[in-house]
Amino acid sequence: MNQSTxxxxxxxxxxxxxxxxxxxxxxELIDARCRxxxxxxxxxxxxxxxxxxxxQLTDSFRLExxxxxxxISTHIGPYSLDRLLGRGGMGTVFLxxxxxxxxxxxxxxxxxxxxxxxxxxxERFRQERQILAGLQHPYIARLLDGxxxxxxxxxxxxxxxxxxxxxxxCDEKYLSLAQRLxxxxxxxxxxxxxxxxxxxxxxxxPDNILVSGDGTPRLLDFGTAKLLSPALTKxxxxxxxxxxxxxxxxxxSPEQVLGKTITTAxxxxxxxxxxxxxxxxxxxxxxxxxxxxxxxxxICEEPPRRPHHPANAQKRLDGDLEAILLKALRKEPQERxxxxxxxxxxxxxxxxxxxxxxxxxxxxxRSMKFMRRHRFGLAATVVLVGTLLAGAAGVVWQARVANExxxxxxxxxxxxxxxxxxxxxxLDEAIKQLPGSTGAQKLLVTRVLEHLDRMARxxxxxxxxxxxxxxxxxxxGNIQGNPYDQNLGDPAGGLAxxxxxxxxALPLVANGSGDKEALRALATSQVAASEIRFGTARTxxxxxxxxxxxxxxxxxxxxxxxxxxxxxxVASAYGxxxxxxxxxxxxxxxxxxxxxxxxxxxxxxxxxxLRIDPGFxxxxxxxxxxxxxxxxxxxxxxxxxxxxxxxxxxxxxxxxPAAEQSTLSTIRMHSMIVRKEANALVQLGEYxxxxxxxxxxAPSYKNLAAADPQDLRALADLEVVLNDxxxxxxxxxxxxxxxxxxxxxxxxxxxxxxxxxxIDLTQKxxxxxxxxxxxxxxxxxxxxxxxxxxxxxxxxxxSAALARAGIDTFKDLASKxxxxxxxxxxxxxxxxxxxxxSLRDPVLAEACAxxxxxxxxxRMPSMLLTLAQAYRAAGQIExxxxxxxxxxxxxxxxxxxxxxxxxxxxxxxxAQLKR
Amino acid sequence: xxxxxxxxxLLLAKWRDGEKSAFDELMxxxxxxxxxxxxxxxxxxxxxxTLQATALVHEFYLRLLHQKKAVGEDRxxxxxxxxxxxxxxxxxHARENLAQKRGGGSQQVPLNDDLPWIxxxxxxxxxLNRALDELNTLDAGKAQMVELRYFLGCTAxxxxxxxxxxxxxxxxxxxxxxxxxxxxxxxxxxxNILIS
Lengths: 915, 196
What we know:
A: Transferase(Phosphotransferase), domain 1, 3-stranded antiparallel beta sheet, 37 helices, about 65% helix, B: globular
């Protein structure tokens, strides 16, 4: 036959689609795709047959070859393989017999294509196998044996059934309706028996129900699906376990498709589909496209097609049978037949001419539910599970590919690259679309991890594969728990992955090897390992890893041909190292000197990158950010110096190219530096100038926040400006540090205004993320401060309630072991100064302040001030004085009398306290 | 008298641009070497490690061009060209073999483990040749893939790299191509093949 290229390519497209499905689904797909073009359909059928023949030939060719490790042996345990019977979803099935002459029984051996089996899985496999071996029923093909081959593959030995699939048997023997129902009843009997023994089939379909020549049905693969579901521990959620389930879409229940718990009702549903097919000759649903989305939509939402008589499309099926089918096919498990037995009773009733149970409520059901589209669950759930299923399917497919590839070292590296690129991105995408971790996401991670571990065992001496593995483990680790990325909230898992990455990478850079790719891969994983540790407040360890990363990086850029991009990666590692040493308000060591030295090294590297490429944007931005970070660290002790730093940072920001100036990230960075400049001015008592600066940047933040009220970052940015502005007004009205005490009332009013807005914004933010502890703390802080300000304005409307809400929040936050020093410091201050005075709690305030000071390594003067104030409130004057002095000692010597910072004045007030 | 590398590069480019004469000019430069590779192919045992045809071709190419490293387009052109020549050599071998009625008692060695139903020197190789000619008119890229993967003996990954596609694409296309070739070589008997 001659073909044109167009037809040829069309045939190829249909061929690939059809290969992805099997059985009646495949037939339907080909019909739908060929749209009555019989020549194309015939060619596709021919090619699919050819494909099967080619695979059999290739399989048996491999089977013929003895001895070779990467080929299937002709013996498995005491069994001798005779021929290939077929390939199923989970592996390859062979006809075999016992080779030791004990029995002359023929058996079917299923060699399971599951490359990810762990030892734990094997153990569970062994246990479950024993349960199934006990399942003895004349209509159930027995599981005889099973185990692990010499190559480590799992296999199952089943009774060999010589028969044809039930629907073909019915058609080939021209069974009458009554005969079909009678046969179906025997299937129900077998299913009921298994259910009574707590075994669910999970994949009931005609291909698994063979009828022998004498008309006896035999159910295959009972419980195999469960046996092969990779639940790792009993405590795993059902979703986790079921999410991975393999099934045949045409016969799968909605809960199966959605990855929900599978019960005996799922088998009842599949029995309904089977009965539908036996009675009408067609499946109840038409899957037009074989995509996950389509599968979810049709199975979970669409009503089944109106059942018609198989021979005559005009003729409707008997009303009672229709009612039975519809009840068995209900979307909600609890609405279906309670058991296979109950379904069988209704079929019996029909055969006996008795009233059918399913008829009850049918009319109402039809009119209300059946005719109109039924929505099963939330559309969002469907999308969610769809994404995850697609991911899981990808993993399974990938695993299968991997299993073949594992046997051919040639493609291992390409396979792995594909894995890290496509699978991890898939996972990444799934996480970005679905914040919060679900069992299925974690399952995906487990699958990927097992795959990688398997690859790692085979990768000895293969540098390229090892490098790919390092990258893959690093990406996985970041997805699992890096707080700088969207992650699954599993830092321990992330660290375990990164340990593997580092262990693989270290030998590649041993003996001073200048392998750049290996050095880069190692450094990237060390950075991630550090970031995760910093995120979980294991700061000392975080610093060890980041220092290791910078050492690795220094080796990488030691050569003069290092690129600007490479150098910027190193600069960024130093920047994070500086944060870990000295970032304020976090779990950093609050070690100013070490932080400054890291930031300065980062700046030096940015400069070096700019010498290579003067317009290199990352370096230009890096300069501004590092200078700002230096200022932020110095602001705690030396606001005058910090002010200079911020102004330098602003110059760097303004030197960015014009096109860059208008980008959102640059606008944000610029505004942040201005805000910090204003904070420094407040510390120096320059209130008017500071307040002018806040006024300068607030409008752009307000515009951003108004543009998208859902944009949490914009809201948070605006909140910080308003909060800082309020603090400026509060300081300005403080008699100890205020320059213009006579403006007290005006300043208090302005502070009240800013605080009210802060509260409003924070409440909006908390609506989107109710458990964010930092924001809860900010809200409580603003509530208490507003209550204090109002009492000073003598407009104490509702302030007691406001103050109480704030104090309650702080008591809750402070009761947590992992409360951050910033939150504890705020809590201590609130508990010390809150109005009404009855809400004050000096004992708790003291405890909070002590914890904050300890957590910040006694290096934060502002926190020592809070402690001193808490001691004073508790009447412990000596201690207050000591804390004040301790804080003062951390400050640099004042250079000019009029450049004294607020902090110094306040600390001095405590240090010189008199009884 | 090894020709200059630049000359070969030029001829390869001309050949890619469709100049038939370039093929004829290249042929004598390449043929003797590829014959050696083909001979190893024909002699080989079933252990695929004993023959690394692509390694030999690669080495030969480097020697031919007096280069240390083969990269990019030139390398691709050379591989597709060599694959075509290898096909010619192996087909010639089969014709010769069948004409002399040899090979009756000798062991049947498949062209590739992935194509166990086509033996080197067997009549089905000539069927394959005809089917490939037909495939070439429908989709020349697919015929080229077969030449690279099965005649030159590239791995799937190498084939992917030479053709500038992903390995997954190669795997997927080959599945179809093999089925298509099989249906052309064994018309009507695709069904009900059971191997015992």
